[in-house]
Amino acid sequence: MVGRGRGIQVKCPFCSHEGTKVVDSRENDDSTRRRRECLNCEKRFTTHERVEEVPLYIIKKDARRELFSKEKLKKGVIRACEKRPVSYEAIDHVVEKIAAKLRAMRSTEIQSKVVGEEVMKHLKKMDKIAYIRFASVYREFTDVKDFKKEIQTL
């Protein structure tokens, strides 16, 4: 595919002609499916277009850089919500909101503290017990006093 100012020029896989027209276009979750027709041989074919995301790195407490993973984020939220009345749809929604907010920061490197605070903000609204569970690990509670102090903030 070659960009030409007015859309994308796609070579026909049958005759290699660069002129095609879009017959049908459908949006999927992460791509756009286009049904195309060659202006030369009139054969039809399908293309899938997807925007490449720039890698996002999380800067850990010990200064290590780790590639951001929505799956890792989701596992952390699921663990905090274990045996709580929180649906997987609600968890997915929170994870998507957090990931979108991180991408909107327009930085390719984000402190892990920012991610942790975002998770806590959402868990606090969603389920107080899940929030306390996450906070106890994230803020490294060392004794019951830490739990009491955090509970009092609720």
Describe the fold and architecture.
By secondary structure, the chain is of the alpha+beta class. It has two domains: 2-49, no CATH class; 57-153. 42% of the residues lie in helices and 22% in strands. It contains five helices and eight strands. Strands 3-4-5 form a three-stranded antiparallel beta sheet, with no helix packed on it. A three-stranded mixed beta sheet has the order 7-6-8. α1 crosses α4 (128-138), α2 (88-104) runs antiparallel to α3 and α3 runs antiparallel to α4.
Sheet with most strands: strand arrangement = 3-4-5
Low-confidence stretches: 1-5
Rounded average pLDDT? 89
Please state roughly what percent of the residues sit in beta strands, choosing from under 5%, 5-15%, 15-25%, 25-35%, 35-45% or over 45%.
Answer: 15-25%
Query: What is the approximate shape?
Result: elongated
Secondary structure: number of strands: 8
Number of helices: 5
SSE ordering: EEEEEEEHHEHHH
Largest sheet: 3 strands, antiparallel
Task: Briefly note the structural class of the backbone.
Answer: alpha+beta
Distance between the termini: 54 Å
Q: Give the radius of gyration.
A: 23 Å
Percent helix: 40-55%
- Counting structural domains, the number is 2
Please describe the structure with a list of short key phrases separated by commas or semicolons.
22% strand; 154 residues; 5 helices; three-stranded mixed beta sheet; elongated; alpha+beta; disordered N terminus; 8 strands; three-stranded antiparallel beta sheet
